[in-house]
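Revision sheet: structure tokens.
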Amino acid sequence: MSKGFIAEGEKYIQEEKFIEAVTIDCVVFGFNEGKMEVLLVKHAEGISKDKWGLPGGWITEKESIDDSAKRVLRDLTGLDNIFLEQLQAFGEPNRFPASRVITIGYYALVKSEDYEIAAGFTASEAKWFLVEELPELIYDHKMIFEAAQEKLRNRVRQAPIGFNLLPEKFTLLELMHLYEEILDVKMDKPNFRRKFLKMKLLVDIGEKQKDVSHRAAKLYSFDEEVYQKLTKKGFTFEF
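Predicted:
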């Protein structure tokens, strides 16, 4: 490495102010009564007071970013023991009005009714919103939400979902509706049925729906071994 290059680097270090502000923002999707939701919080202080945004906050000095994501989500919404997957970093210079802040996005998909939410820390309110009825969001949170939504849609094409979102016994129509909600598309039922049954992922439990006014449909469950294998191995599922 040339001395000139080193000198230029040292000059840059002396003249430039380095960025120290890093935060976490979480996009938690919920599936409830056949509809997709997202969890938002209303901030109780600061420049975002009384405005809706994603659960987010600062990373502390001695914790990992994964631990920060879990803590921030728990402190603001009460949600705990949720598997959060790292999404990506968002670092446009003007994304935060007060100073330069880079945020690391995380996302998750849960069954809403399995969790009780309770606003805490710097949040005055925590609430599930239907994805098609989101309020105006602070900063670039709509962009983060849309990136998480696209990531989730790509994921369901490559790995199975529904194990913790559907009842233990479910119909093919319920499973198809879950995919329709996530992907925001209408599917052909015979085609969906053929492709899913071909994967050997579903087990016909020999029962049918009860107490329905229409023709009772077969009930299925997931083959857990195949489910875990496909989750690790992945697949390509085009609709």
